[in-house]
């Protein structure tokens, strides 16, 4: 509002206004309002309160002429100034300096004494209202702080406040429970104290090399969490950069949740997708992925081997004893095959009904693969007991050794299956090894 926005009043410029027996020239009244407005604006930015001051000046003039005189009018004016957020302690003093000449403009024999009493009352009312507002504000702030603390302490998510260097300033009980320590023990420690060592570089890059330098924004992190008991969990956090107010330093606000169970379920689903449910061995998909991984990292001279085992006359077991016994036999065979080559760093997979494959990673010489085939065959030498029946089980094995670099997983499996065919033509419990000098093509 500029100086032209004077308080509106009845009558034209130059006219006189009668306020309860007090005659005040309109130009003088308007000028006084402007002077009062400017004086208060200088100390409290009261640029939009000119109309209020015009109203309060009218109350003051009425109070000067009122019969009987009541100094409480000044108290109410002081309270109104404070309620208008003119709370600087110098407001009553500046007001008195501006208004002290009113006594000369009021035709009342006791105007000077009355004005002095009103100005004192303005100061008293102003001070009382400021203090009352401050007490109310303190109470509101306490209520807000109390409600915030209730939410903070009882939130179903983890909440942490940290400085921009990663030191925790506050942590709620939910976060403390996730880590397994009392909340008060988290204050003053670094976030790296409970971040997995393998994840710390990524946290540093996302938060302290990107978010903090930008001084704004939010990043989302889902990484491993080190618990106090030594176990490892997973946590998902949204971390926001918050600028400090009232001279306070900037800080980081983190909201998160424990997602360990979700990761466990995801890992379980992945395991189920890549493992045989009956035997627990890797399935065909997992085997092919492992062969692909070996081929992808193989050196030129590296060789890879497969031993493809098929149980002899297993259909007879199912037909004669039932599929329940057949499943017990398959589980027992899987365990024996796996144990027999475990110390050779071989992976054993079940790829079909009674078909098992052992992957022999580099360096896989013909001799090495021969040893593996013998161990697989020997593991089935003793009878298997299933549902009270002792069953003698044997397997025919087709083995292949080929250069790893440039090979194709499916073609390699087909080559081992071809070797198995020749082994079966020799009768039960035999194995055949084919050594290939060129990789099985893609």
Please characterize this protein's 3D structure.
The chain has helices at about 25-45, 50-65, 70-85, 90-100, 110-155, 175-180, 200-215, 260-275, 285-295, 315-320, 325-340, 365-380, 410-425; strands spanning about 15-20, 20-25, 160, 170, 220-225, 230-240, 250-260, 305-310, 345-350, 355-360, 385, 390, 395-405, 430-435. By secondary structure, it is of the alpha+beta class. The chain has three domains: about 25-135; about 160-260, Beta-Lactamase; about 275-435, Reverse transcriptase/Diguanylate cyclase domain (Alpha-Beta Plaits, 2-Layer Sandwich). The strands form four sheets. Strands 4-3-7-6-5 form a five-stranded antiparallel sheet, sandwiched between helices. The chain has a five-stranded mixed sheet with strand order 9-10-8-13-14, with helices on both faces. A hairpin with a 2-residue loop joins strand 9 (about 345-350) and strand 10. Helix 1 (about 25-45) packs antiparallel against helix 4 (about 90-100) and helix 3 runs parallel beside helix 5. The protein is rod-shaped and about 140 Å long.
